Amino acid sequence: MIKTHNFGAGPCILPDTVFEEAAEAVKDFNHSGLSVLEISHRSNPFVEIIEEARDLVLKLMGLTSKTHTALFMHGGASLQFAMAPYNFLNNSAGYINTGVWSKKAITEAKKVGSVRLLYDGESVDYKSVPDHQELNSLQTSGYDYVHLTSNNTIYGTQFKEFGTIDSPTIIDMSSDIFSTIRDYSKFDLIYAGAQKNIGPAGTTVVIIKKEFIEGIKTNDRFSMLDYRKHIEAESMFNTPTVFSIYASLLNLRWLENRSIRVISEDNSKKASLLYQAIDKSAHLKGYAEKTSRSEMNVTFTIENSTIAAAFDKKCKEENIVGIKGHRLVGGYRASMYNALPIQSVQLLVDIISHIDNA
Ligand SMILES: *Cc1c(COP(=O)(O)O)cnc(C)c1O
Fold first, then answer.
1. pLDDT 10s digit of each residue in the chain, 358 long?
2. 218 and 345: one domain?
3. Domain span including residue 128
């Protein structure tokens, strides 16, 4: 097999063991003579899968089922853009706009009710996110909730800290969940599409603080869009995404084995390796401000088109894929999710120094 180094922004690389175990389960799930693709979601084996996955999600966040509920839902993070306001926006919500995904969340929320923009990163071309101090200086009290995006996948910026937010807080963590040590208890609702750090595309993880659920006021919500229905049905209000949840469980077990602390250290090492190479390079220019740099998505440009062509050629030769930047930003984006080995990053760094010395 040719080793391909996958720097794709999502769906993302997963550990080899996850691919192997998932492939085995597609053929014969736990020696049952059935494929995981055909087992009933009501069968005991699947109920055990979803329960273990739910427990692991909470455990990896340092939370428990006493205070929080974890759900596996459909519709991606994008459905949460609509569902969060649909359930929680009564009077007004505060939004922190740090990029494309935040903006999409704002667009949906405005269809539901009153939205106040507390911070607008558009004025800085989304090159930075507010730091601790800036966040604390925002007026965040009195809202049904304040919404933010922890990591801006397209621009390559990431919050290091979240300051003090004086309203319930909803956060889109799609692209950096489980990548670093976070105080997840600060948030009232957390959501993440699985396909960036949790598992294959299909399921979306939603974690809600129990006392926050009690705040859902109206009772006339479409059932499929009502968090309470999903909570009551323990994520089986309708047929769940069985395979995506199973493969996510395999990855969650891998995460637990390695520990988030080790994962976090690895991610920091990978990021500093690549950022150092970018800063040293005469040809590469980082997109994000240094203080807001993401450890997950590294964005950069190469102005000289001859150099860029040489870089592209070398990447192709070395089987590096997925580093083309998002069409809105251009340039390059190297996504380095949890399972990306440091060897892949080292290879990219070697290519950078190769073109620099050419
Ligand atoms: C990818 C991404 C999304 C969109 O996720 P879907 O599951 O495709 O809807 C939302 N927010 C962030 C931060 C993302 O990176």
1. 568 999 999 999 999 999 999 999 999 999 999 999 999 999 999 999 999 999 999 999 999 999 999 999 999 999 999 999 999 999 999 999 999 999 999 999 999 999 999 999 999 999 999 999 999 999 999 999 999 999 999 999 999 999 899 999 999 999 999 999 999 999 999 999 999 999 999 999 999 999 999 888 767 889 999 999 999 999 999 999 999 999 999 999 999 999 999 999 999 999 999 999 999 999 999 999 999 999 999 999 999 999 999 999 999 999 999 999 998 889 999 999 999 999 999 999 999 999 988 8
2. no
3. 16-258
The number of folded domains in the chain is: 2
Give the Cα separation of 142 and 145 in Å (integer): 8
Q: What is the pTM of this model?
A: 0.97
Q: Which pair of tokens denotes residue 273?
A: 């390796």
Q: Which residue's CA is the closest to the ligand 1 atom numbered 7?
A: 76
Q: Judge if 171 and 186 occupy the same domain.
A: yes
CB-based burial label for 342 (10 Å; 0-12, 13-18, 19+): middle
Q: Which of 153, 179, 189 to mutate to test the pocket of ligand 1 (most atoms within 8 A of CB)?
A: 153
Q: What does the alpha-carbon distance between residue 290 and residue 157 come to, in Å, rounded to a whole number?
A: 9
CATH number for position 311: 3.90.1150.10
Q: Is 196 a catalytic residue?
A: yes
